[in-house]
Amino acid sequence: MRHAAKSASRFLRRFWRGLREWCGDAAYESYLRSKGRRSSSCRTLSPAEFYVEQLNRRYSKPNRCC
User: Which residue among 22, 40, 51, 65 sits deepest, i.e. has the most Cβ atoms within 10 Å of its Cβ?
Assistant: First the structure.
């Protein structure tokens, strides 16, 4: 019984982490991890600044739709 609960818990954690990565919720955490690995002179963005930067990056590209 204990093994099944532990396995289910591990599955749910992995599923939740994957879901957050897929929908972009974990983007700021990924940014912080990559920022920590690189030694750059640029300052770290706040969550709000990061969100605005992501929106600008996403919508500043030409749209081929219409």
Answer: 51
